[in-house]
Design goal:
It is a single chain. The protein is an alpha+beta fold and about 180 residues long. It has one domain. The chain is built from 5 helices and 6 strands. The chain is globular. This is Ysc84 actin-binding domain-containing protein. Keywords: Signal.
Length: about 180
């Protein structure tokens, strides 16, 4: 491959990453915009995902990512900004990023919430310099008309994820491998 074609290849592959920041409040009025989106996402989740309000009440804290944009063409990435709430009050702001490689093409947007079910899990998240969602993360799933599956096992899991409001052309959304960093909006 010549140097010219390598540059064209890298430009074509990284173009979807440029889309990742679209619509996520970049260069926006900061915390007010994030807070407004977080409040809308929480209200939407409570109305569309039965059982999520109970999960929030039982948790030590909730990280709400109201809008995550993901795009990929071979290489892909995702980006979003949100807020950590404890007892319904915003205590910190976070960004989430992830990268992926493989057979993929398309773009999607979705929302997700991480519920910290133990004080220790919340403390570990807040004290980390860059927390990464691992494979041990429990997903609470909602059927279209059914309630959230929050059985005893789910409620004893340190961190529970709920992904909702998905729209786009990439099938499935997960937060596994996503990195979360505290930000100052």
């Amino acid at each position: 491959m010549t140097a010219f074609s390598r540059r064209r290849f890298m430009a074509a592959v990284s173009a979807p990453l440029a889309l990742v920041a679209c619509g996520n409040g970049v260069n926006s009025p900061g915390s007010q915009r994030i807070d407004a989106r977080v409040n809308q996402a929480i209200n939407f989740m409570y109305s569309e995902v039965p059982g999520s309000e109970t999960l929030a009440q039982r948790s030590s804290g909730m990280l709400m990512m109201p809008l995550v944009t993901e795009a990929g063409l071979g290489l892909g990435g995702a980006y979003g900004r949100g807020a950590l709430l404890i007892d319904g009050v915003t205590v910190d702001y976070y960004s989430t990023t992830s990268a992926s490689a493989g057979l993929q093409i398309g773009a999607q947007q979705y929302s997700h919430a991480l519920f910290f079910m133990t004080d220790r899990a919340l403390q570990d998240f807040r004290m980390s310099s860059g927390w990464v969602a691992g494979a041990d993360l429990e997903y609470a799933v909602s059927t279209r008309r059914g309630a959230l599956t929050t059985d005893t096992t789910t409620l004893l899991t340190p961190v529970v994820a709920v992904v909702f409001g998905q729209a786009g052309l990439i099938a499935g959304a997960t937060v596994e491998g996503a990195k979360y960093n505290r930000i100052i909006p």
